[in-house]
């Protein structure tokens, strides 16, 4: 489910004034939304911290809290088989990403109401849990710089990120009720569907 990587490029730009050069490393990725009439677009991480876009107008990328807020009136429904396939794909992909120390990725979800389809793909999967991220986790947990001891770091480990991501993605997509299925109650916007980074990190 991770978006296909079409190429990695190094681009050098020479400024006309002064001749100064600047270099950028670019990653060219598949456009999941090409040829689609997307009416809603979400960037989902499974976190509630700074995950709300107050500007929900057309063509804006919405975040986790926007989806939770819309659930009582405009949930994202999927069939039972599709839900199982989605959970399996998320499980396998997050296992792979955690295995190579990657975190902070997102699930991009486009709602194509014209075709009654969802377009999904994992994006932003280039950030590794390097030594500086380890240091931040240790410093904030120890409180040696004066902050509260055992405070949750703003960056969590790949294992913790994987668990949080799986839990949230499972809750975000509501199964369409089928015959003989028990009643399903849509989540309340105030319910704790996604983790708040200010809470204690999950145990590994």
Structure explained in plain terms:
With 204 residues, the chain is α/β, with parallel strands linked by helices. It contains four helices and eight strands, in the order ββββαβαββααβ. The chain has helices at 64-70, 80-99, 131-142, 158-172; strands at residues 5-14, 21-29, 40-44, 61-62, 76-78, 106-112, 117-123, 173-175. The strands form three sheets. It has a four-stranded mixed sheet with strand order 4-3-6-7. A two-stranded antiparallel sheet has the order 1-2. Helix 2 (80-99) packs antiparallel against helix 4 (158-172). The two termini are 24 Å apart. Mean pLDDT is 81; it is low at 200-204. One of its GO terms (cellular component) is endosome membrane. Residues 1-173 form the PIPK domain. InterPro entries: PIKfyve_PIPKc, PInositol-4-P-4/5-kinase_C_sf, PInositol-4-P-4/5-kinase_core.
For the record, what CATH class applies? Alpha Beta
- The CATH superfamily label reads 2-Layer Sandwich
Mean pLDDT: 81
Strand content: 15-25%
Please give the count of helices: 4
Q: What is the first-to-last residue Cα distance?
A: 24 Å
Which percent bin holds the helix content? 25-40%
CATH architecture: 2-Layer Sandwich
Overall number of domains: 1
The CATH topology, please? Phosphatidylinositol Phosphate Kinase Iibeta, Chain: A, domain 2
Q: Assign the structural class, choosing from mainly alpha, mainly beta, alpha/beta, alpha+beta, or little secondary structure.
A: alpha/beta
Strand arrangement, major sheet: 4-3-6-7
**Count of beta strands:** 8
Query: Helix and strand string, N-terminal first?
Result: EEEEHEHEEHHE
Uncertain spans: 200-204
Tell me about the largest β-sheet.
Answer: 4 strands, mixed
What Rg is obtained from the alpha carbons, in whole angstroms? Answer: 19 Å
């Amino acid at each position: 489910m991770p978006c296909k990587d079409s190429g990695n490029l190094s681009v050098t730009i020479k400024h006309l004034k002064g001749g100064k050069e600047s270099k950028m490393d670019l990653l060219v990725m598949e456009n999941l939304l090409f040829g689609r009439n997307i009416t809603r677009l979400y960037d989902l991480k499974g976190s509630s911290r700074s995950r709300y876009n107050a500007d929900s107008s057309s063509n804006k990328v919405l975040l986790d809290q926007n989806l939770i807020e819309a659930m009582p009136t405009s949930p994202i429904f999927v069939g039972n088989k599709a839900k199982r396939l989605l959970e399996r794909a998320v499980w396998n992909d997050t296992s792979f990403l955690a295995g190579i120390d990657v975190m902070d990725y997102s699930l991009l979800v486009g709602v194509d109401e014209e075709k009654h389809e969802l377009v999904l793909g994992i994006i932003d999967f280039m950030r590794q849990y390097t030594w500086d991220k380890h240091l931040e986790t240790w410093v904030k947990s120890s409180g040696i710089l004066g902050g509260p001891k055992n405070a949750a770091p703003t960056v969590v480990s790949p294992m913790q990120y994987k668990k949080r991501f799986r839990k949230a993605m499972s809750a975000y997509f509501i199964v369409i009720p089928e015959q003989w299925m028990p009643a399903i109650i849509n989540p309340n916007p105030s319910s704790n569907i996604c983790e708040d980074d200010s809470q204690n990190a999950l145990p590994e």
